[in-house]
Write a structure and sequence with these properties.
- A hairpin with a 4-residue loop joins strand 2 and strand 3.
- This protein has 154 residues and is of the alpha+beta class.
- It is extended.
């Protein structure tokens, strides 16, 4: 199946409960970071399937999000996003994203008048700003400890 993205809206309370229970059961086996063999049944037939380790990890992330009542969107790494989609992924406004593109902070290409951004470039930018934020927070915590502002040293 070739799809740009798959979006699952937030689950119902019943679906969240099923996701929570399934995630708890699956987590015992997922810790090994290896492929898993499962038996799928529909009440009449049972068929074994094997999930690669990456799919198991992804499934655990999906179940965790659903158990928390969150919707999930899956977008392939090589997908090209519109500016609206990329802004949604980064949780920023479209004008702010356009500014980032104009400043060449995120690579993109033009298709006619429209900009297209690769998902992997969006995620690389997100990882870099997350790392920068963490570094700043670490420095703030270190400064607070140094100045004895009520934070004990770990």
């Amino acid at each position: 199946m070739n799809m740009m993205a798959h979006r699952q809206l937030p689950p119902s309370a019943k679906e969240a409960a099923i996701a929570r229970a399934s995630g708890q059961l699956l987590s015992r086996y997922a810790r090994n970071k290896a492929s898993l063999k499962l038996r799928v049944t529909d009440g009449v037939q049972a068929e074994p399937i094997e999930l690669p380790a990456g799919a198991v990890a992804l499934l655990m992330d999906i179940l965790e999000a659903m158990a928390a009542g969150q919707g999930v969107t899956i977008i392939p790494e090589n997908a090209e996003l519109t500016t609206v989609q990329a802004a949604d992924v980064l949780n920023v406004s479209r004008p702010f994203l356009i500014k980032l593109l104009d400043e060449q902070k995120i690579p993109h290409r033009k298709v006619g008048k429209h900009r297209r951004i690769r998902m992997e470039d969006v995620m690389a930018y997100k990882a870099s700003i997350d790392a920068e934020r963490e570094s700043v927070l670490d420095q703030l915590a270190a400064d607070a400890q140094e100045q004895d502002m009520g934070y004990g040293k770990p």
